[in-house]
């Protein structure tokens, strides 16, 4: 039904399809302003393709129709909300389902816990969060060493040498995730290389092959994907078998799952989601944070002063991270400026209302987070990287409402905040970060926002 051009659609469009597939089709209309279907079968699908991504489509949609707007995905009505006030009206803080987890599980063919009993979902969420916290505590020294190794490597470069930021941050993120999620199994460099190859093979096909059916048309690609998934699952199954029922001093993410009342299948699936999502979120948070610091000497120097004041001559510790307030502001502003995750989604279980508009039951409701993060009425000088804006309590509350801080942030993002804080504290103590003159970074808006091509920086030793 969909032709090759569909490759341009983002991961979150897959989420839309995955959610809608679970519910009976409807052509129910509403009084919400928006687009009429351009195609009887595909709705406004081609309009999304033409814009390049779902986020860019939503930017245009809200510019034309205002903060509440509708369009059609196939034969289903979709409502998009594009303002903080509307988010406040609509968000149910007691929700336990995670759109990120739901989408990945659907695409990987995993079923357990994606949609089900609220009590079970809450229990698994707590176990998942506990796994992240305990693995960070137990493996903090490893993350610190990885950061110090990165600085040592960059210090060895000539002052004028360009550093491939995306490549190095992805490697750093993968080492951090594999060490905290899988422990000693991934201390060997060859194991890490295999993980990186398999991770890339799986993530790439999630981004395109499932959507248009092209994976089924290519025997070679399908075999590569299936082998990668099988190999990663085999490693996780072996690890679970080795660690179940054992008391091991160095805790990893999987241990918390094994100590809960979860089946082997649930442990496997949750470990796989953390391994995949943790790498992508951590890598891109670090990429954008370092890149934005190269563009703002004032922010870089303010961060340096805070780090030296809080840490003195000693190393960063998990306890002292909480004292690095400005560093957290840098990361919050990184999330906002980069629009790190530009769209989220919820299914309207019962008929609802925002302002004067009625949202019909079983309508997919999109939160156009990327639109809101660049709304000048909510964020003065919205396109400027300015960590000082988070001195204001109202700014922090707004980011919390969007799910980027506080109780609503996903465990993978909480993990990424800690890893990125360690990295930045080590970097700014010894290095000055510089932009490459004339470089223009174009953005790829997918489930997690990333640079379209390699981002380059240069570094010099801090005297």
From TrEMBL:
Membrane-traversing stretches: 6-23, 273-293
Molecular function in Gene Ontology: heme binding; iron ion binding; monooxygenase activity; oxidoreductase activity, acting on paired donors, with incorporation or reduction of molecular oxygen
Keyword terms: Heme, Iron, Membrane, Metal-binding, Transmembrane, Transmembrane helix
Superkingdom of the organism of origin: Eukaryota
Residues annotated to bind heme: 410
GO cellular component labels: membrane
Xref: Pfam families: p450
Cofactor list: heme
Similarity comment text for this entry: Belongs to the cytochrome P450 family.
Protein name: Cytochrome P450 20A1
Upper lineage: Eukaryota, Metazoa, Chordata, Craniata, Vertebrata
């Amino acid at each position: 039904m969909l032709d090759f051009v569909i490759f341009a659609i983002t991961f979150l469009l897959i989420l839309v399809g995955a959610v809608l597939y679970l519910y009976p089709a409807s052509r129910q209309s509403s009084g919400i302003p928006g687009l009429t279907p351009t195609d009887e079968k595909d709705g406004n699908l081609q309009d999304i393709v033409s814009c390049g991504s779902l986020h860019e489509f939503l930017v245009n949609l809200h510019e034309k129709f205002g903060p509440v707007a509708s369009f059609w995905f196939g034969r289903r009505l979709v409502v998009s909300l594009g303002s903080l006030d509307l988010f406040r009206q609509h968000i149910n803080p007691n929700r336990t389902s995670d759109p990120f987890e739901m989408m990945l599980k659907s695409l990987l063919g995993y079923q357990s816990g994606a949609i089900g009993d609220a009590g079970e979902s809450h229990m698994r969420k707590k176990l998942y969060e506990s796994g992240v916290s305990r693995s960070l505590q137990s493996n903090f020294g490893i993350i610190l060493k990885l950061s110090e190794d990165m600085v040592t490597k960059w210090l060895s470069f000539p002052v004028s040498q360009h550093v491939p930021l995306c490549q190095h941050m992805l490697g750093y993120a993968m080492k951090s995730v594999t060490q905290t999620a899988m422990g000693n199994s991934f201390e060997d460099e060859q194991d890490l290389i295999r993980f990186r190859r398999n991770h890339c093979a799986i993530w790439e096909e999630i981004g395109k092959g499932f959507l248009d059916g092209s994976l089924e048309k290519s025997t070679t690609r399908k075999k590569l994907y299936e082998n990668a998934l099988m190999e990663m699952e085999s490693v996780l199954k072996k690890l679970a078998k080795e660690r179940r029922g054992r008391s091991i001093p160095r805790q990893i993410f999987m241990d918390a799952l094994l100590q809960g009342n979860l089946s082997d299948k649930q442990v496997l699936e949750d470990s796989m989601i953390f391994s995949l999502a943790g790498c992508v979120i951590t890598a891109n948070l670090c990429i954008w944070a370092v890149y934005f610091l190269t563009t703002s000497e004032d922010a870089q120097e303010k961060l340096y002063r805070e780090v030296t004041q809080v840490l003195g001559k000693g190393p960063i510790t998990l306890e002292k991270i909480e004292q690095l307030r400005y560093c957290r502001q840098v990361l919050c502003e990184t999330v906002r400026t980069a629009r790190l995750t530009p769209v989220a989604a919820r299914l309207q279980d019962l008929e609802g209302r925002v302002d004067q508009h009625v949202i019909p039951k079983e309508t997919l409701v999109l939160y156009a987070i990327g639109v809101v993060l660049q709304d000048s009425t909510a964020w003065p000088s919205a396109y400027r990287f300015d960590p000082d804006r988070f001195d204001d309590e109202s700014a922090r509350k707004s980011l919390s409402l969007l799910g980027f801080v506080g109780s609503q942030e996903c465990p993978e993002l909480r993990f990424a905040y800690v890893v990125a804080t360690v990295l930045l504290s080590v970097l700014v103590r010894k290095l000055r970060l510089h932009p490459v003159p004339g470089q223009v970074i174009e953005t790829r808006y997918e489930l997690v926002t990333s640079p379209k091509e390699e981002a380059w920086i240069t570094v010099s030793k801090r005297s």
